[in-house]
Structures are given as C-alpha cells and as structure tokens.
Amino acid sequence: MGGSLASALRASWLPRITNGWFFRAESFFSVARYLDEAAMDARGTPPDFLSHSHGEGFLRFFEERCQRQGIFIFDEPESALSPARQIEFLKLLHRMNGTGHCQVIMATHSPVLMAYPDATLLRLTKYGLEPVSLKDTDHFKVMREFCDDPKGFIEAAIEE
After folding, report:
1. An example of a Gene Ontology BP annotation on this entry (predicted)?
2. What is the average pLDDT score of the chain?
3. Which residues lie below 8 Å from residue 67, measured CB to CB, with a gap of 6+?
4. What was the pLDDT predicted at 31?
5. Which residues of 62-95 are buried (b: 16+ CB within 10 A; e: fewer)?
6. Domain for residue 5, yes or no?
7. What is the pTM of this model?
8. Is 6 within a domain?
9. CA atoms within 13 A on the CB side of 118
C-alpha cells in the first residue's frame, strides 16, 4: 500500500521547505547508530544517542533537529515513549509550533498525543479520511474505559 500511496501524494510547501523528517520509532536505533558513528557535535564528540533509553534518545534526537523550519512526519512516535515522555514530546511539538515554521503530520494511536491543542484529527476508514474528535476515537474510548475501572477492564479483557 505504501508504494501506491506514495505515487498518489505530492507534498509541497510555499515558501519552499528544504528541511524535514519522516520518522518511524522502529527505525530510531538504526538512525541513532549512524549519527553516533558519522556526526560530531561542536566539541568534536559524537552525539551518543544510544547511551540513553529509547525514549530519552528519541527526545534528544528531535530536540536537536526540529527547531528549524520544516515538515516533520511521525509514524507512531508513542511506540518509543512512556506516557510521561509523551508529555515531553507534546512540549517539543509546542516549541516547534511556536516557531511558526513547522508542520507536523503524525499517525498515532495515543490519546495523549491526539489531544494536542488545535490538532486536526482524521480517521482513516474504508471510505477515506474523515474528521473525528478526540473523544470519538476508539483509542480514547478504550483508555477512558481502562481509567474508569482498571481492574474490571483487565478482568474482562483477559477473559475473552
């Protein structure tokens, strides 16, 4: 499906944007390893992303790269982040948004990340994309049911 989708989309931005990232959390270690081997910071030492936990390295990576004008596409960034680190990621998104020069497109299952203020949420259905509110997403509903009764939720889930 990715190949078909790629041929159907054409990204453009005015004024012309030359910076940006497509990022899958599953690819982080490969990218971090490459950067640790190839890049040096201003002191001549490697960035050392791999000495941190997955979530810490992920956040550090984006802190350093997402402060400039660009388009950033994230594919399920929550898979690298604990709930507390998802809040840190929201703060990073807010700083990026504050520059006025960044656009973020994100595929996520995280109600925490979906709750970003003024985010446009779209649900992919068999009929295409449709607008959806946070509280109407399946992921929010599941999280709400869990938070309302964790014990009962888990008991019901494992009995099925």
Report:
1. monoatomic ion transport
2. 77
3. 95, 96, 99
4. 58
5. beeebeebbbbebebbbbbbeeebbebbbebbee
6. no
7. 0.68
8. no
9. 5
